[in-house]
Amino acid sequence: MSISVTQRSLRRASRPAAKRPMPLGQRRTRAALLFLLPGLALFSVFVIYPIVSSIWLSFHHWDGMTAKTFAGLANYRELFASDTFYVALKNNLIWLVLFLLAPPAGLALALYLNQNVFGIRLVKSLFFAPFVLPGVVVGLVFSWFYDPTFGLLKLIVGHGIPVLGDPHYVTYGIIFAALWPQIPFCMILYLTGLTGINPEIIEAARMEGARGTKLLWHVILPQLRPATFMAVVLTVIGALRSFDLISVMSGGGPFDSSTVLAYFMYDQAIKYYREGYSAAIAVVLFAIMLVYIAWQLRRLVRSES
């Protein structure tokens, strides 16, 4: 009997201990990481790696074909000593200031179109149509509009104005063309935000006597804060990375008077095969965008808290 008891105890001791079930929190964390892993891998390959490689390339001289030559800060020193860089930076600031007219204009259109009347969907689609047009098409349309020989602007004013041929007017003419599709984009963001506003809050405010500007400023706009954040951030990014309309309408001219940082970067890389110098311009543009977006996110977090 004692031998059988001893054998049983030995068998039990030799069996592997049963695994304890993983806590629910750890299982959820592991599942979340597994779901995030493909997205993180793609983000690393297509976003993080290009950023790091561009920063590394900006410290080299390279024409895209021969071997890279380490240059240190030479590209940045040349960039900050270039007159074209400051012209491009000034034009980017002009784009930034004037492009910020798009969110309030989009808000005004959204408030006007946020009605339940017959045919309003057709009107909304007509206002939104410029946004779905490619930038090349918009550039061609406004190039014909500004043409001093047969353009519509000549018929309106009565005489030809060389908007795209005058260094004083060309940047403002291109910005006006760029605002044509940007305003409908902001309008759609605000229309989406208006559909999510609680109507009971609006009715309660009206019962308290809020009307017109007071209702808009104290009741509607605070509920549109996420839409405003998206409209402002995307508008600023669009102003800083403006390229397609400049390429189509002026090619950075006349005499580099309408160039911006994005087009200056393209010009140096494609026309002059200065990949390292172009990467330095890209790094400066990325730093400007990063500082602005971080500032906006900090403001948003503070206002929400």
Automatic annotation (TrEMBL):
InterPro entries assigned to the protein according to its UniProt record, in alphabetical order: MetI-like, MetI-like_sf, UgpAE/MalFG_permease
Organism from which the protein derives: Trinickia dinghuensis
Residue numbers spanned by region Disordered: 1-23
One matching Pfam family: BPD_transp_1
UniProt-recorded name of the protein: Sugar ABC transporter permease
Assigned GO CC terms: plasma membrane
Family stated for the protein in its record: Belongs to the binding-protein-dependent transport system permease family.
Compositional bias (Basic residues): 9-18
Residue intervals passing through the bilayer: 31-52, 93-113, 125-146, 169-194, 215-239, 276-295
Domain ABC transmembrane type-1: from-to ranges: 88-294
Location within or outside the cell: Cell membrane
Entry-linked PANTHER family: BLL4140 PROTEIN (PTHR43227)
